[in-house]
Amino acid sequence: xxxxxxxxxxxxxxxxxxxxxxxxxxxxxxxxxxxxxQLIMQGSWSFDKVxxxxxxxxxxxxxCYKDNIVTFTSSTNGTVNEGAIVCAxxxxxxxxxxxxxxxxxxxxxxxxxxxxxxxxxxxSLTETALVxxxxxxxxxxxxxxxxxxxxKH
Length: 153
Prior knowledge:
The protein is an alpha+beta fold and 153 residues long. The chain contains three helices and nine strands, in the order ααββαβββββββ. It has one domain: Lipocalin.
């Protein structure tokens, strides 16, 4: 009988110790989430793909824009480095930018593409992907379409 009580006492004590160690840690050393400004500035962005509506038009997009590297160098400035293929109407070498409308609009002082606008709607922004959209007129005059641009690190 004494052995059974002894084992029962050990089991209760062990259970108490194990269960008390399973609670939430008081030491919360989590890193705060990065801001959109920090995410967009953490590296250079290269073209991944572009959609016109739901159609992937990356294959017919001018290669001189697809090889450009975009870098947001500070909280207000950025650069576009032309790749090996330079367009007849090259992208701007430098630009200024800002967040507008509660960080849902990426506003530039100059368009990245002829026929494009200076504002991009932010679709998503993560550590490795930047997705923006805008209505632009890359096709027939007077026929603007919605485009979604995907960039990656």
